Amino acid sequence: QVQLVESGGGLVQAGDSLRLSCVASVRALWTSAMGWFRQAPGNEREFVAAITWSDGTTSYADSVKGRFTISRDNAKNTVYLQMNSLQPEDTALYYCAADRWIATMTRGPNAINYWGQGTQVTVSS
């Protein structure tokens, strides 16, 4: 079992930046990969970014490449998502997730067992 707690969401204007945090209760083999997903009203939950605890390997959705950066602080069991150049289409409820493999996360949310409660990001134009 793993508990994930997100924070850092808020209301910002287009072009602004925001940094999300996710604190994990467990850091082990079965939670080797940490990721971020997002879901806008009426939309499917989609993959945003992921990272491994061990060596910091990362993966990003094409829609956020060059704008978002995922990082981790192993000593704090915390994963961050730095979001720059935010656009209205980035508006969504952002969820933290944990899994064994990054590859599982990049395929979508269906196989992910553990989720945070979500933190709302709203970008106005």
Task: Describe the SSE topology.
Elements: E1 4-7, E2 10-13, E3 18-24, E4 33-39, E5 46-52, E6 58-60, E7 68-73, E8 78-83, E9 92-99, H1 102-106, E10 114-115, E11 119-124
Shape: globular
* Structural class by SSE content: mainly beta
Taking pLDDT < 50 over at least 5 consecutive residues as the criterion, the unreliable ranges are none
- Count the beta strands: 11
Percent of residues in helices comes to: under 10%
Q: Could you tell me how far the N terminus lies from the C terminus, measured between alpha carbons in angstroms?
A: 40 Å
Number of helices: 1
Sheet with the most strands, sense and barrel status: 7 strands, mixed
Question: What is the mean predicted local confidence, pLDDT?
Answer: 96
- Over all CA atoms, what is the radius of gyration? 13 Å
Beta-strand share of residues: over 45%
Series of secondary-structure elements, N-terminal to C-terminal: EEEEEEEEEHEE
